[in-house]
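User: I'm curious whether this sequence folds into something compact or stays loose and floppy. Could you predict its structure so I can see for myself?
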Amino acid sequence: MSASDSTPNESAENADPNVPEPPSKEELRLAMKAFRKRLKLMQLDEESSLGHGPMSSGRRSEIVAIRPPDQFSKAIWRALAESGQLYHTGSGLYSLGKD
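Assistant: Here's the prediction. I'll summarize afterward.
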């Protein structure tokens, strides 16, 4: 039997179980959506604190990096950082990449 005669099941059986599959496009899309939502909520929360009210100087939030949502794996956040959609700032924090 030649290598071209192998069935898909044989190649799946030979795959290393310790190597995780790359995240799907749908997982990456959902993770980015969750990240943007969490970043926006944290910025709005900071802006609504005392000293940031509508009658004060109206400063914008200075939050630019956050810890990503826990419901997605670290591999997804690494993949988004490698693709340039996020930037890893260190200490487990990520910020939005250059759009």
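Summary: The helical segments are 8-14, 25-47, 74-83. The mean pLDDT is 82.
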